């Protein structure tokens, strides 16, 4: 087997492991079991995993569980003890320390802040606060209109909850690593076709994308897509991906109606400006792009 073939084989094996981890976050994830999935000896599996992904298994599991916890804090009224237990912590105190270290605030404060910022429609009537007014009174993003050059992406489809597209990105990054395409500055972009309030979560369509050379050999289920090539309304969100719905609500309900512009025919896309594996969620930067006519 050539070096290139070996690299591809390693990437495919680690891709299977990452998919298994994402699908079994509630289970005990033992290294021996994961090494069996990867078809590596347990004596060597973890070193290969770190070499391919840039993080340990424990770090990957912790990152994915804390992301799920952030989504639960935003979407549900579940007790902190339940969320802490699902995230793999034996006490709320331990969960609080870990969450605050990654997300910049304790989980209870994070939940309160999300409730304060998320737009809500008050009961109808002359005194009712509209969604746009509520947003303008609580937060502000700088929105710029830019012309984005056309960019060709190798993409992998994702069907379902947008907050779980990370699984497709993990697979895409494993593919790119196996082909030696993960060079400094590689652009990582998500394409989102549906309004998440318009249909059940299971039916949402999106794609994980990487800007790679056009002669890159695509794996099965992958496709080439293009984004850009015209004007976009662009804002940069700083913070966890679980809070991106706030940025979209501001863009559509506060900025767009007063902008004098109309949305174009292409779907929204996000560009992830730093590496979520090397920066805490409180420092993640995401450029949200709304194509315009």
TrEMBL record:
Keywords: DNA-binding, Transcription, Transcription regulation. Residues 15-113 form the HTH araC/xylS-type domain. InterPro entries: AraC_E-bd, GyrI-like, Homeodomain-like_sf, HTH_AraC, HTH_AraC-typ_CS, Reg_factor_effector_dom_sf, SmbC-like. Gene3D superfamilies: Homeodomain-like, Regulatory factor, effector binding domain. Pfam families: GyrI-like (PF06445), HTH_18 (PF12833). Coiled coil: none annotated. SMART domains: AraC_E_bind, HTH_ARAC. This is GyrI-like domain-containing protein. It comes from Labrys neptuniae. The lineage of its organism: Bacteria, Pseudomonadati, Pseudomonadota, Alphaproteobacteria, Hyphomicrobiales.
